[in-house]
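Because discrete structure vocabularies remain unfamiliar, we reproduce here a specimen of the format, pairing a chain with its fold in token form:
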Amino acid sequence: MDRPWLAHYDAGVRASLAYPDLTLPAFFDATAGRYGDRVATVFHDAKLTYRRLKGRIDRFAAGLLDAGIRPGDRVAVMLPNLPQFLVAFFGTLRAGAIVVPTNPLYTAHELEHQLSDADAAAIVTLNHFFPRVEAALPNTDVRCVVVTDVVSALPARLQPFYGLRDRRAGGRRIAAGGVVHRFGAMLRAAPLSEPIPTGPDEVAVLQYTGGTTGTSKGAMLTHRNLIANALQALEWQHGVDEDIDHPTVLCAAPFFHVYGLTIGMNLAVAEGATMLLVPRFITDDVVHVAERYQPQFFPGVPTMYIALAEKSGVSPRQLGSIRVCISGAAPLDADVQHRFSGVTGARLVEGYGLTEASPVTHCNPVGTGGRVGTVGVPFPDTEAMITDPETWEPLPVGEVGEMTVRGPQVMRGYWRRPEETAEVLRGGWLHTGDMAVMDEDGFFRIVDRKKDVIIAGGYNIYPREVEEVLLAHPKVRDAAVIGVPNAYRGETVKAVIVLKEGMEVTTEELAGWCRDELAAFKVPRVIEFRDDLPRSLIGKVLRRSLREERTGEGIA
């Protein structure tokens, strides 16, 4: 097919790459063999070299096998960006099992659904999250819970002080016994000398996403998918780091999200970079880490760049080491690009992707900065076209249609959902559900989402899931959930409510009801009451009409 975008690649960026025939554990081992003495992770000044990290990964893999985990089992990893995430992720794969990255903000109800759908055999989590995990377990087949804590990742000199703070914050020590295992005890197992045999085209990760109905489903990402996307992203930065002896990446985008997993963790492993681990984005903490360790790369989401650009007193001295930022997970406003680049001098470019593509398919060229308002051009070895969403036929340049892509990063399919897999993967192409347009130079612009997914602060929120919680309230007759613009989060959640006749309820009561069932980022921030909802002739709620109105907004 015609690929006009190739003419706009940065100098030296290849249109096609050679991908190693490796699994992710072997991919990590290759880096550890080459850069064994290089620092792999930094967390509150505690440092782990690639060699020491590999040792922990090998022991954790053996510990999982000793605990009864078998090749092919699913292991949920419910951790923020800590050294333990890397140990659990690569250790699980080394044991031949499949990783299920899990959002630590999930409620017990949400967690139960994901663990049940994945048929997970184990979960690795923090002591702070254990009560929710414990509440979710009875209706799952989980037989192994591995518990760790933040304190054990700190330097020894800080552990007594932070241990006291952790206990005061509710981080009690979870006793081992029954299905519960301590993370530290797992690391005392004799190291697994060789990974359990598996192939590059086997599933490595079940990364959960959602569809137009809000039904959560696991995208089956293979070892080859994830390695390919990391190497594509590394190639995209060609020439930017040629004078850097030891690349350093600020990892604030969460690893449990596919964007942080690939563009943060796996990309860093691909080039033997040091990862500055930030478990929770707090502006002051990020500025402190950046000033102390001088990272060159900072993949993130728009809310992070907004917070840093708007923070008073931030100077180039603190953030001036940052050279490249690739923004993903949500649309990036041109004003944010300008302001952040003004503060840091960094090249901030917007990309595009989706969970089903590991996730990146497009990005603006780093060297030239690309074109503001677009998501750039397809990655190496990635093809894209705009198709008619009804006929699936290609559309000419300048016409709006569905973004359709193919490349080595595209998933195998959805976990145990053959019909939905067949619907989204047709003729070797991934139909993204996003409406877009391509210009004559091959730059793509997202026009709208065919799906009604809301992206707030980089998190995907599926309206139907929130609506079902609202409809369960005894005073609610009808509900529709949409995303509305928000200067900080990109979008925020708005609920339009129709009450049962004669009923009264406050916005605070409804928000509290949602907080009991949903992660905080899914709770409606705007609630509006109406007598009815706009519907189509067949009775379907017209969310598009609600988005276009955006009136009568009452803040909950």
